[in-house]
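User: I'm putting together notes for a lab meeting next week and I want to include a structural view of one of the chains we've been expressing. I don't have a solved structure, so I'd like a prediction I can at least talk through. The sequence is below, exactly as it appears in our construct file.
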Amino acid sequence: MKVAVTGKGGVGKTFLVAILAKLFAEKEREVFAIDADPDANLALTLGFPDPSEITPLVKMKELIEERTGGKIGTLNPYFKLNPKVDDIPDKYFLSRQGINLAVMGSVRGGGAGCTCPENAFLKALLRHLVVERKEVVILDMEAGIEHLGRGTAESVNRLIVVVEPGRSSIETACKIKDLAGEIGIPKIEIVGNKIRENSDKKFILDALAGFDFLGFIPYNKKINEAELKNVPFFEYCPEILKEGRRILAKLE
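Assistant: Thanks for the context. Below is the predicted structure for the 252-residue chain, given as structure tokens.
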């Protein structure tokens, strides 16, 4: 199972990724959770210790130069577009409660191609995880999917767009659908988040008529309380996982 989660900033992408990673791990599936959002906070949401001290892979300068043969920060145009990365998950990912985590850092250049050693390294790692690994891989993406190259995107089993009751997140979902078609992803699915009442759900259903829906997660003020208390939300308010289990059942 290879899942990419995207949507407008602030709608709850990382929240959904954490739910799915937690539930897959509970089923004793080995999980790779990849934070590919420049505004990285998946480690914090999953309860990894000292998340601010985690070094993003893109900042591992010596490792990237060794694998790509290119000098970071120079105009040297020669570096490997397909560096060796198959050992990176075992050596550099962090593990906690059955979840293996990597913070990638900003992936520049998108589907337009590799323009620097860092980008070549991260693109190769994404491709390896999605195309070659057998474990569950869940990608926490930024608001867009341009950095999924065609070969990687075609191997993603599910592309989920998280939306909230609001016009801006609806517009982002429509834009992502267009981008997905351009790089070979024929279908996207929607998860509604921060649902306070039936009118919120109806608004999303009406605005995105014709889309496939995986589920709707109710608003829960305990999620904010958990963040203030620095406690993983699934420990502070485990009831939030109820809808997550329904979504997981549809995914499987």
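A couple of points you could mention at the meeting. The chain has eleven helices and eight strands. The domain at 2-251 is CATH 3.40.50.300 (Rossmann fold).

User: Perfect, that's what I needed.
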